[in-house]
Amino acid sequence: MAVDEEAAFTLPRGATGFCRPTDGPLPQTDRRMFRTALHAAARAARGHVGEVSERTYPRTFHTAVIEGTAGCVVLCHAHHPWIAFAAEQREWYTEQFLAPPPWAHVFTDLGFVVLDRARLTLPLADVDTSVLTRGEWRHVRLYGITTLGGVLFNAWD
């Protein structure tokens, strides 16, 4: 796909968790800052940080549960400072995202980008996917991914 100047979201390199060796290593989201933001968000939500699961290959994201908030799961992309919310922990997501809770601003205040459900469920036709390689497109088709969130929060191997 060509660069779409009117796309609602532009995928940067590393959004899928894949990279070409010639491109060098992918950026890494600061895990310390993520943990700091989690604790600040838990305080704002009058809850506490529960289980935190660091990203393991092939998953592209870290997860954490903020207890006392109806079990809200926080997703943090491993390569870009994107935050999303879900009702349950999964190995990958397609459309199972929640609207950001009232305390989500804490992540924004600390430099993260909070992605809302509307953005995460955008059809790929509305996303600038020009950076995706043939291999990444093969995974998109293989796993039947049709949304931005499915591309960002995946566990493709």
Describe the protein in words.
By secondary structure, this protein is an alpha/beta fold. It is built from five helices and seven strands, in the order βαββββαβαβαα. The protein has helices at 31-44, 105-109, 117-120, 134-142, 148-152, and strands spanning 9-10, 48-53, 61-67, 72-77, 82-86, 113-114, 127-128. Strands 2-3-4-5-6 form a five-stranded mixed beta sheet. Strand 5 (82-86), helix 2 (105-109) and strand 6 form a beta-alpha-beta unit. The mean pLDDT is 92.
Strand tally is 7
- Shape type: globular
- Biggest sheet strand order reads 2-3-4-5-6
Number of helices: 5
Distance between the termini: 23 Å
Strand content bin: 15-25%
Q: In terms of quaternary structure, what is this?
A: single chain
Q: In which range does the helix fraction lie?
A: 10-25%
Structural class: alpha/beta
Q: What series of H and E elements makes up the topology?
A: EHEEEEHEHEHH
The biggest beta sheet is recorded as: 5 strands, mixed
Low-confidence stretches: none
Cα-based radius of gyration, to the nearest Å:
15 Å
Please state the average pLDDT score.
92
